[in-house]
Queue: 2 jobs
Job 1
Amino acid sequence: MLRVSDLHARVEEHEILRGVDLQVEAGEVHAVMGPNGSGKSTLAQVLAGREDYEVTAGSLEFDGDDLQEMAPEERAHAGLFLAFQYPVEIPGVGNSYFLKAALNATRKARGEQALDAMDFLRLLRERANLVDVDEALLRRPVNEGFSGGEKKRNEILQMAVLEPRLAVLDETDSGLDIDALKTVAAGVNALRREDRAFVVITHYQRLLNYIVPDHVHVLLDGRIVRSGGSGLALELEERGYAGITEASAGGSGG
Amino acid sequence: MSSAAGPAAGRYLDLYSRRTGEAGFLRALRQQAIGRFEAAGFPTSRDEEWRQTNLGPLLRAEPEPAARHTLRAGEAAPFLYPDCHRMIFVNGRYAAEASSPPERVTAVALADLPAGGENADAIAEHLGATACGLASCSADARVHAFAALNTALFGDGAAIVIPEGVVVTRPIQVLWLSVPTLGRGDAGDGAASRLEVSFPRLLVVAGENSQATVLETHAADPAAGGYFVCPAAEFVCRAGAVLRHTRLQVDAADAFHLGFQHARIERAAVFDSSSLSFGGGLVRNDTVALLDGEGADCSLDGLYVVGGSRFVDNHMRVEHRQPRTTSHQLYKGVLDDRARSVFNGRIYVHQAAQKTDAKQTNRNLLLSRSALANSNPQLEIFADDVRCTHGSTIGRLDEDALFYLRVRGIPREEAHGMLVYAFARELVEKASFGPLREDLEGRLRSSLNGGRGGGRSR
Ligand SMILES: Nc1ncnc2c1ncn2[C@@H]1O[C@H](COP(=O)(O)OP(=O)(O)OP(=O)(O)O)[C@@H](O)[C@H]1O
Ligand SMILES: [Mg+2]
């Protein structure tokens, strides 16, 4: 489904990704861990199509298509989703209006009928319920004045409405209280399917108790230095990243 | 005729001399105004208040009175709102057959002003009392050439007098429709091109404790050629009155629009005015509000959406003359292509105006590298116990927000439109009259779609 090979990316003069290899197949859950500043968000943003990052080498393929040829919205239409580490506040744009525009743009791009107001509202209520998002948040401007946790839940709500095939969650667990963490995890698990995949970026083993990954990768200095099963997360929890550095790099995890 | 004030002024003085005389207070008023204009002439780039407004193309043209035009069926319809009282003017002339003025108020076309008719005294008292050819009511006020020209040259106009205590529930719409009949006048080098000009005139007197809503629309077919519209409006809010006012400007793209409006707000009265500018090639609005009684309050809000090589200039002067007066200004501009704008806002607090509360904000959104916004808020405060704030911003679209919307599948152009709409929406949504609000929302949306070229996807 997703094939990242030898990806190098930089912003201005800084080379941040220095040869990332990652392969994700349908039905899998991958966790990406790594210290602050190692390039996790950069990888996520490059996948989503952020233009500030220049890809200097390597390739990105999604279902065989070259992602670099696709605008951010085209990647979304193809089924790629990114939950932002720092969701953006958009004053003046209503949350549910935004979600409807997003869903219908995607449906239109796929040649499907737009949902009318009633059908959309029904879907939105159902999904908001699933991920336990307060309906009051739907009427407010996108993320504006939302608490940290509300922003993260809102990302998961968007995922639940848009039903992507590959969702990249960038530290969606950060800033969540324990109940919210469980709800978010339940939301993700409810969406898990044979034809869907997740890349979960996190600092904490705790989330992985609820969303059990098939593969765990460690990103360090812009490279995946180790990959393993879910046990690797536990090992990291105990030993920290220091112990990992010496261990040999695995590269691809698929 | 040439004039000491220059050849351009001479052409307008000619228009005045070609007028046939009229009796009564109007005649004295006009003579005073044309005298002021003749002495001062048109402002030049050396005039501080006009430095940024390029009048060259306007002043090179040969003015002639806009031709008489009979409304064709449906011609005014795109600009009319349902459930309103209506006064329709075409090229400055009252179209009585298409109009339906309210009954309990005196709403007359000035040319028909009946001598000694109902409220004739009120009209005589207030017409030209403030928009008399001076830039403000202060003792040292300079001549305002366009207010003076309007006063000297207006033909028809609307005078609306709302009696004491009367509440007019339906809005009163005043449509100023321009239908230029000359083609794009280009007589070649040397000779001045011809330009049709009209001078709409409005007087609204809201009697004590009365309430009304006045919707002014300055409009033309978007494809009409060039013309010059030079309106002047006076608003008087007597004690305790509440007057709501919207001024929608959707002139043709080649039009010159230079307007002057003056509001005097008395004790505990409210003047709540919005100015929305979507059309015109060279647009300037000079607004003066005088808070002239204790507890008087005004809101002066505005939106300008400008593209191409168009230019919009708003000059505001709010004078707090009495204690406990409040004023609130919010002007927002959206500029694309090579458009330019000026916002020049001055709040003037007289020594007597203790406990003044004044706020002024101008925010501009630039959508292209070549667009240019000028913003000059100014405070002049002569009282010590006041609260005055002002601020201005000139910014670009939030790229992070744009990316966020696109990552969710919203195409670039649509995302762009959503963000610009979000920036401006509070000003169109402020309109409480449903049909007006819907019209403004539609105009804002279409003005954002129009002129958005391709080549920006990715
Ligand atoms: N625009 C930029 N200019 C300069 N450096 C940048 C820029 N964007 C990112 N970086 C740097 O790139 C490195 C990787 O950042 P990134 O956000 O990908 O880290 P991360 O692994 O997500 O960290 P965290 O766990 O703290 O979220 C950091 O050192 C960061 O400072
Ligand atoms: Mg990060």
Job 2
Amino acid sequence: MTATQAARKQSLTSKASNYLDERTSISGAVSFLGRKIFPDHWSFMLGEVALYSFVAILISGTFLTFFFDPSMTHVPYEGSYVPLKGIGMSVAYHSALDISFDIRGGLLMRQVHHWSALLFVASIGLHMLRVFFTGAYRKPREINWVIGFLLFILAMAEGFTGYSLPDDLLSGNGLAIINGMVKGIPLIGTWISYFFFGGLFPGTAIVPRLYILHIMLLPAILIASLGLHMLLLIINKHTQFAGPGRTKGNVVGSPIMPVFAAKAGGFFFLVFGAIMLIASLVTINPIWNYGPYDPSPVSAGTQPDWYIGFADGALRLVPPGWEVELFGYTLTIAILAPMAVMGVFLVLVAFWPFIEAWITGDKREHHMADRPRNNPTRTAIGAAGIIFYAVMWAAASSDLMATHFSLNVFYVIHVLQALLILGPIIGFWLTKRIAIGLQKKDREMVLHGFESGRIVRKPGGEFIEVHQPVDEYERWRLTSFDAYEPTKERPNSAGRITAGTKIRGSLSRWFFEDRITPVTKSELEQSKHDH
Amino acid sequence: MAKRKNRGRRHPLASAALLILGLAAVGGGYTVVSEAADASAPAPAASQLTAEDGQRLYMANCATCHGVEAVGTKNGPTLIGVGAASVNFQVMTGRMPLAFQGPQADQRNPQFTQEQSDAMGEYIQTLGAGPDKPDEEWLDTSATGVDIANGAELFRINCAMCHNVAGAGGALTEGKFAPNLHDIDGAHIYEAMLTGPQNMPVFNDNNISPEEKRDVIAYLHYLDESPSVGGWDLGSLGPVSEGLFIWTLGLGSIVALTVWLTSRPN
């Protein structure tokens, strides 16, 4: 290529970009995006995993819509799966079977769609835990936490509506459980159920309705929220772990262009590849085993997908006979209680940033990610929450635990019931102790260095182990964190201490009573003199 | 950045290879274990035995629990009228003689040959007639008129609530369970329906006709013979095993990828 040719080419691209820029003013956005920095700790990539599995869901889902037909018309099966030949079923189930057996690549796409859906929700969950334990939801990112929470709920809703579409025995049983829960709501339950199913359960309206929700409404809301989530992420920037040169005002890592873009592009294909690998090797939801939906049979091992499991488990954990009669109405506490517990749990999660800010009284902006140990109470609350969720989740598979470990189902349920209450308490206490212990160790390291393993005999005959001071980078990492103190219960303008202030004071004391403060400069100086 | 542990970048294919290896190991391990569990020793053939031989075998091996003349004791129910079908099922699936008292008879390798079991069955029949072993005709799943789809439907309606739609088994109350139904002899499936062992209901010929029983057998054998179309079936346990898989191998391998991507070249 000669120089003139190169120049002409150059001018062509620059012409093109000029053309675009004059009409869209996109260059500002491009350079803004290009300068955005992405931190380089692995846990910061979990959100991306969610994003990429969502892309996989969109692509495979589009393929599925070409062939899936949500109609509830009753037809005999005429596809190629022998054990269903001639069996009457809905067109919806028939077309889902056709996708699995008679459309090239259909089964693979179904499995990609379902596996990536499971991965999507799982990676959102893990991503939320990362954000929680590093305190990355604090001001100014509270709103983005709430949007993220909304995404989590939307993802579950997408999963649930999708699970119900094939109209096989499993999905029908799932709907039957939902129907039961809805009907358990006092006064309006039956009406809601009527409205939802377009008449008596199961009816023929529900699958087409869920389909519209699944492919139009929910994805539209999901994509809009996702866009907002990413926009706020760019505006607020990422948090980062403390380190030399890392301040509240900057983010250290690779700029999006070109290093990170290259990495992210590669990572996209890695995630996609992993999903393809799983989908081509491992069966998911073999709908042909379940047969068409029919309200009478129920299969052993009827469970929802994992992300709905906690709700199923909560229902199973209720002791039998929770029902009261009030003014001639039967209140099914067995359904209302778990719904209330789950509702409270979810509300606590959704509004946690505001709750914590209220307790700590902290109105500052935070851009540094906490190491989990440096906020022991929060970390302990997180651990307790995980245990609470996990016990409900495990309860959904109580029957499988019983058969696979040769245990009595009732026994398994009783143990889980006890764990639901005791687990979070023990987990809280243990985690807090461990976090504080780790903090003490950090302090020890900063002040006295780490054990070098070198034993020296002093002239006086005394043996000592030489302690090596940690280097400056490490010291920075270990000493830069916020130490909160309990808020003071100050009287308000009327000179009174309100009940709210008192509650807040005691919560704050509970939060920060036991604390380890970061090593201060003077302490450090002091320790240098000692050695 | 200074003073980082030397985390060398692995070969680009290492993770993929690891993933495949992991999958293969788990899959292989599972197959070995499930095959080992299903294995049963073939019994050596013996010459024709009679009801008298059956009585002798019975007195030596069963009378302690089921009593002389099979009237029953506190350790075992009476066997009068249970029929040769029940004896064949209990003995040839390795449930009897009972190994130890538990919530449910444990299965071992069969302790008797087919002839010895038949002789005991004949003896029990002489005490009071009950359902006999099925005719060969009802076990021949290649006969004309056998309808696998009908068998599958009957199975979903009558059996799946305990045994799971894919015959993977399920939990019942008080430590009892419905076993998985993979690779079970046609005669034993038939006899299980006919005699209803333990917590399983009896499906007599009015409930499920012999032809229909044959369809059920044909369906269960179809499942045994057809490979899982979607790949590894995770034990056909449904969404729980799928969730477990995505949280362990699935998300695990992806987290491994993120750690690898963010590690620095030295």
